[in-house]
Design a protein that fits this description.
Radius of gyration: 17 Å
Strand order of the largest sheet: 1-2-3
Helix content: 10-25%
Shape: globular
Distance between the termini: 60 Å
Number of helices: 1
Structural class: alpha+beta
Oligomer: single chain
Order of helices and strands: EEEH
Largest sheet: 3 strands, antiparallel
Strand content: 25-35%
């Protein structure tokens, strides 16, 4: 017999919004919009590094 607990699953992101700002000195903001419509800022350094390596993040002058 199954217990009545529903297995909790994390909502899957269905959109990622990357905001570029004209002022390069401002921090980059990356958001994921989950299937439950919640908006979460992604602060994971590995994700930022990957995006930078893919040239999706403008590099600061002198880098």
């Amino acid at each position: 017999m199954k217990n009545g607990k529903k297995k909790e699953t994390q909502p899957k992101p269905y959109a990622i919004n990357i905001r570029f700002d004209d002022d390069i000195s401002r921090p980059l903001r990356i958001y994921s919009i989950d299937s439950d419509k919640s908006i979460n800022e992604i602060t994971n350094d590995a994700v930022r590094k990957l995006l930078k390596d893919l040239n999706l993040i403008p590099k600061k002058t002198g880098e």
